[in-house]
Amino acid sequence: MSEIFNVPCPICQKAVEWSEKSPYRPFCSKRCQLIDLGEWAAEEKSIPCETADFAMNEESEDWRAH
């Protein structure tokens, strides 16, 4: 039998049971899930990556050359 454990909701920090009983896991609710999605859509959150910055700079320079 697998152990069930709790994780904190990334938005409100409420304990969320990591199991089938929590359909929005790791979020505690649909509301917190949508808040997180909105933050990503508004570009308030991002995953840092040097190669993405480098690729974007190269594309900008190529565009200027035309």
From TrEMBL:
It holds the Pfam family YacG. Zn(2+) binds at C9, C12, C28, C32. Coiled coil: none annotated. Its cofactor is Zn(2+). Keywords: Metal-binding, Zinc. Gene3D superfamilies: Erythroid Transcription Factor GATA-1, subunit A. InterPro entries: DNA_gyrase_inhibitor_YacG (IPR005584), Znf_NHR/GATA (IPR013088). The keyword ATP-binding does not apply. It comes from the Bacteria. Binds 1 zinc ion. Inhibits all the catalytic activities of DNA gyrase by preventing its interaction with DNA. Acts by binding directly to the C-terminal domain of GyrB, which probably disrupts DNA binding by the gyrase. HAMAP family: DNA_gyrase_inhibitor_YacG (MF_00649). Belongs to the DNA gyrase inhibitor YacG family. Interacts with GyrB. This is DNA gyrase inhibitor YacG.
